[in-house]
Design goal:
The protein contains 3 helices and 19 strands. By secondary structure, the chain is mainly beta. A hairpin with a 7-residue loop joins strand 11 and strand 12.
């Protein structure tokens, strides 16, 4: 009887569907709850607001050793952020420690996230504005359905990504396409270059316009260094389209930041962002400048962070904006 029970248990642990053995599946997730308040310099307090919001994610992932010696990793994530839950991340990655190939979305090396030290969110999320437009509107292809190759060299990862349809996020399995859709590609390096404490991000994003659409491009370089409890960094990025001379839209941003880990629980940071904008070939007279301070504290299973930012010439206008964000993060 004992042997029969052991055999039954062993069989239950290995389920075969269509000749493919199912690997052990891991479940992960997180919940973020945010209080956000902003106040504009418009007369009579117009344009000021405050509110609570939440984002929650749950993901499944697994891996398997293939017959050819390579490893396959795969998974997906469901996200709810101000609406019904929907598909967000998915990936299938096949390779080894030196190189891999992936079919994925919202996954892998990217230029969307900053390469300089910060507490929680950056100004792109906390404040939005012109810096947000540069970092999101013409960011990179990792949020789209893509194919990429990752090569691990020089203390980091080189990524080459191809996006058949720019802006495609959440296509059905019978892929959607059109001759009028733009394609895109990314070339990115993220790593230390083999230097302890150094962190670098460098890359380009290019969108090939079709029909009457313009080409788009983003160039980004950041360098950060960590020495003990301190970390400092500087970042430069520029985006523009290929409209005819006198009609181009351009964003040019420079960011610097520093953080200090007071202890294992508490960290503080300060950052400054300056963004120039050219509308239809004409330079805006006001540069947007954002100064933001942040505090992060860990309670073990819960983290709390607070960011306060002052934006001058918000979105390259004559309006100023103050923003306060308080966020709790729980992971499982």
């Amino acid at each position: 009887m004992k042997n029969k029970l052991l055999l039954t248990t062993a069989i239950a642990g290995l389920v075969v569907v269509g000749g493919v053995a199912q690997a052990e599946t891991k479940v992960s997730g997180n919940l973020e709850q945010t209080f956000n308040s902003f106040s504009d310099s418009a007369s009579n307090g117009a344009g000021s607001s405050r509110g609570l919001g939440a984002e929650y994610n749950i993901g499944l992932s697994s891996s398997a050793e293939l017959d050819n010696g390579l490893t396959a990793k795969f998974g997906f994530n469901l996200e709810a952020n101000g609406g019904p839950a929907g598909a967000d991340v998915h990936f299938l990655t096949i390779g080894n420690d030196s190189m891999s190939v992936s079919i994925a979305r919202d996954n892998g090396n990217n230029l969307s996230s900053t390469g300089i030290p910060h507490i929680s969110d950056t100004a792109s999320t906390v404040v939005a504005g012109a810096y947000h437009n540069l970092g999101i509107s013409e960011s990179d292809g990792h949020n789209d359905e893509h194919i990429r190759a990752d090569i691990n060299q020089l203390g980091g990862t080189f990524t080459i990504r191809y996006v058949p349809t720019d802006g495609a996020s959440g296509n059905a399995s019978s892929s959607v396409g059109s001759e009028n859709n733009n394609s895109a590609y990314d070339v990115i390096y993220r790593g230390s270059l083999g230097v302890e404490g150094l962190s670098t991000v460098a890359g380009v994003h290019r969108v090939k316009g079709t029909g009457g659409n313009n080409d788009l491009q983003l160039d980004k370089v950041s360098v950060a260094y960590n020495f003990g409890q301190f970390a400092v960094g500087v970042e430069k990025q520029k985006s523009k389209d290929s409209a005819a001379a006198g009609a181009q839209d351009e964003f040019d941003s420079t960011s610097i930041s520093a953080t200090f880990a007071v202890n294992d629980k508490l960290s503080v940071g300060v950052a400054r962002y300056e963004t120039e904008r050219t509308d239809a070939g004409v330079r805006d007279p006001q540069d947007e400048t954002i100064t933001m301070v942040g505090v992060g504290y860990s309670l073990g299973g819960i983290a709390i962070d607070v960011n306060y930012a002052q934006a001058e010439n918000f979105n390259n206008t004559t309006q100023d904006r103050d923003v306060l964000q308080i966020r709790t993060i729980q992971k499982f």
